[in-house]
Design goal:
Alpha-Beta Plaits; 8 strands; six-stranded mixed sheet; two-stranded antiparallel sheet; 10 helices; alpha+beta
Length: 292
C-alpha cells in the first residue's frame, strides 16, 4: 500500500474520531486523557475455553473454572481497592475478559517489579487450577480505564502471545526486558530470582521463591489462624492437576505445553530443594512420585 493511501486512511480515522468525540461526550473524556506509554501484560488462560465448551458434557469443570475466576476477581478487587485508598502509584489496573487477563501500569520507578510480581501471582493461580498461563509483557501506548481498554501495547502483547511465545510462559518482550535490566542494574537483587530463560527467551519466573507476595500470604494466613503453607498447597495442586490436563489434551501441541510445565516445575523443585513428592509425573513417565 502506498504512503499516500496510508496517509489518507489515517486522516479519515482522525476525522471519524473527531466526529465521534463531538457526538459522544463520554468519548471526549476518554480520548482527551493521556494515550501514554504503559507497562502492559496480556495473559491467555490456555485450556480455559476448552473447559467452558465441555461444560455441557462435563459439568464438574465448573468448579475449577469458578475457583480460578474467583481468585482473579479477588486480585482485581485488591488492585482497584488499593488504588482507591492509596492513590495512583503505578496506577495499576486489571481487566479480565473471557480467557484473557490484561494488566497495565504507569511508567514509574518500581513499576517493572510490580508487573513481574503480578504476572507471577496470576501464573501461580492458573497453574494450581490446572490451566496454563501464556502471555507477554511490553511497554507501549495504552488507554486502560474501568470501562475501556485499547492501544498499541495491548495489540502487540496479544499478537506476540499468539504468534511467538508458544510455550506456557509470560514472556518479556525486548522493550520491557530492557526496562527490567535497567531496574536491576546496580542493586544487589539477583534478576534470576524473578526472570528466567530456558532457551526460548526471558520469561517471568512464576515459581520463584523470592516474590514479596509469598511472605505476605504467610503472614496473612498466620494472622487468620489458617494452617498449612500456601506454597506447598500450590505445588500439590499442580502435581495433581497436570496429569489430568495431559490426559485430556486434544493433540500433541497441547501435550508439549504440559510437558514444558512439567520440566519447569520439576527443575524448580530440585533447585529450591523442595520435597520430591511435589514433582509432576505425567502419564507415560517412567518415574513414580515419592509421597510429599
Amino acid at each position: 500500500m502506498g504512503r499516500a493511501v496510508k496517509n489518507r486512511r489515517k486522516a479519515a480515522q482522525i476525522r471519524t474520531l473527531a466526529l465521534a468525540q463531538v457526538r459522544n461526550p463520554a468519548l471526549l473524556t476518554i480520548f482527551n486523557g493521556p494515550y501514554a506509554n504503559r507497562l502492559t501484560t496480556f495473559i491467555d488462560i490456555l485450556a480455559f475455553t476448552r473447559d467452558v465448551v465441555s461444560l455441557s458434557t462435563r459439568p464438574g469443570l465448573i468448579y475449577s473454572i469458578e475457583a480460578v475466576l474467583s481468585r482473579l476477581r479477588n486480585l482485581q478487587s485488591n488492585i482497584d481497592g488499593k488504588r482507591a485508598r492509596e492513590g495512583v502509584r503505578h496506577d495499576a489496573r486489571m481487566t479480565c475478559f473471557s480467557d484473557s487477563v490484561v494488566l497495565s501500569y504507569a511508567t514509574q520507578p518500581g513499576a517493572a517489579n510490580r508487573a513481574l510480581a503480578d504476572a507471577a501471582f496470576i501464573g501461580r493461580v492458573l497453574l494450581a487450577g490446572g490451566y496454563l498461563p501464556r502471555g507477554a509483557i511490553t511497554v507501549g501506548k495504552l488507554v486502560h480505564t474501568e470501562k475501556i481498554i485499547f492501544g498499541e501495547a495491548l495489540i502487540q502483547a496479544a499478537h506476540e502471545e499468539k504468534s511467538s511465545v508458544i510455550t506456557p510462559r509470560v514472556a518479556l518482550l525486548p522493550v520491557f526486558h530492557d526496562l527490567v535490566r535497567l531496574q536491576f542494574a546496580g542493586i544487589a537483587e539477583d534478576k534470576s530470582a524473578f526472570v528466567r530463560d530456558r532457551g526460548d527467551g526471558p520469561f517471568v519466573h512464576i515459581l520463584g521463591n523470592r516474590w514479596p507476595f509469598i511472605e505476605q500470604e504467610r503472614r496473612d494466613r498466620a494472622a487468620q489462624g489458617i494452617a498449612g503453607d500456601a506454597v506447598a498447597e500450590m505445588y500439590d495442586e499442580i502435581r495433581l492437576a497436570m496429569p489430568v490436563r495431559y490426559s485430556d489434551a486434544p493433540h500433541d501441541r497441547a501435550r508439549d505445553k504440559i510437558r514444558w510445565v512439567r520440566d519447569y516445575v520439576n527443575d524448580t523443585i530440585s533447585e529450591q530443594q523442595l520435597s520430591l513428592g511435589f514433582r509432576v509425573i505425567l502419564p507415560g513417565d517412567s518415574e513414580m512420585p515419592a509421597p510429599p
